[in-house]
Amino acid sequence: MEIKNLIRKNILALSPYSTARDEYDGQIGTFLDANESPFENGYNRYPDPRQRELRSLIGVIRGVEPANIFIGNGSDEAIDLMFRIFCTPGRDNAIAVAPSYGMYEVAAGINDIEMRKVLLNPDFSLPAEALLEAADSSSRLLFICSPNNPTGNAFDRGEIIRVVENFAGIVVVDEAYIDFSDRAGLLGALASYPNLVVLQTLSKAWGMAGLRCGLAFASSEIIRYMNMVKYPYNINLATSENVKRLLSGPVSDQVAVIKRERGRLARAIGSLGFVEKVFPSDANFLLVKVDDADALYDYLIARGIIVRNRSRVPLCQGCLRITVGTPEENRRLLDSLNSYKRDDL
Ligand code: PMP
Q1: DSSP secondary-structure letter at 210?
Q2: I need a surface site. Which of 14, 15, 57, 333 has the fewest CB within 10 A?
Q3: Each residue of 2-46: pLDDT tens digit?
Q4: CATH value at residue 194
Q5: pLDDT in tens, 289-303
Q6: Which residue segment(s) compose the domain that 298 sits in?
């Protein structure tokens, strides 16, 4: 597959903005090139637009070459860039599984791209055939979120690969929650599939949602276009410094706690009389079907606990999505769930 043929013509023709910091590689001691303030306060200089240090650190952690890594202002930036690079507004279309993460559709709407949503199978498995059938000659992007938000399940790797192999556009596999899954993600498949883009984020397992740092992994050709189209200084200095500091944090211990708590919460919630089902989860949240989702949602709000009401989402009727918290937060949640209904008596 020729990736070049999928890129929008105006992007192929683009001369990207070249920043002051793009134009040197060596040792410079006096910076009079970028109209910055010369007075040191820690943040008076622009950050590295190529994010060389961060990309090499993340590359080591994920076993991926820096040339295959894009760093964005959250993975939301990478999602938006996919549309801006591959889709011509008003003409092309994109495909996504449903229900799934809402930003694919919002980014499509902002970019004036038709979004074709394909319902998951009733058991939440990947509807590979239906996804491929939804495509036509104007389909440029296909989004698969695995583990999926809000259903929580990871899809069968062979089924995802089948879609990647048979879709004549870019397949974006969003692995925001992959660190909570026992299944391997698709980073290892990148070299075999030039049309595959894998998204990950530092917002979940890595504990850095407030810093806004998302990752895209893809062929060096796609990454080059992403870096051309992004804002030159999309990752600010404070984010970059804090990410570097926190990348060596106790992430795997914290993921182990979340996975243990997830199992404990699932069993405890599943035993409650008003709970119809707790869906198996490969993520850091549980999708829970209850007898009256709106009533339970309001009850929890009144007790100072907010969860996500997904009861109006297709295939999720009656469902709340509950993030796994600290053991103390989960105890508070269970205390409230245990007193729900009993308070009515
Ligand atoms: N993908 C999925 C599946 C998500 O659930 C989220 C956030 N809820 C994101 C991407 C966005 O993550 P980020 O904070 O990196 O923008």
Answers
A1: G
A2: 15
A3: 999 999 999 999 988 888 777 767 777 888 989 999 999 999 999
A4: 3.40.640.10
A5: 999 999 999 999 999
A6: 252-344
